[in-house]
Design brief:
This protein is an all-alpha fold. The protein is built from three helices and no strands. It has one domain (1-57). Helix 2 (28-40) crosses helix 3 (43-54).
Length: 63
């Protein structure tokens, strides 16, 4: 079974960090802290918005 990277519904801003955390099996808070550190350099902000545009949203789960 192949895994796909999606933006998560468990989002704070765009769901990018939570989606990456779900994909790699990490804690979303840890991924968000890493994004914040990259954002201090300025590169993280651009990369986050690029990922927000490129990574598709997660499909809705049917009950």
């Amino acid at each position: 079974m192949s895994r796909r990277l999606y933006r998560s519904h468990d989002r704070m801003l765009g769901g990018v960090a939570a989606g990456i955390a779900e994909y790699f099996g990490l804690d979303p808070t840890l991924v968000r802290l890493v994004w914040a550190l990259f954002a201090l350099g300025g590169v993280g902000i651009l990369f986050y918005f690029a990922c927000w545009i490129i990574i598709p949203p997660a499909p809705y789960a049917r009950p």
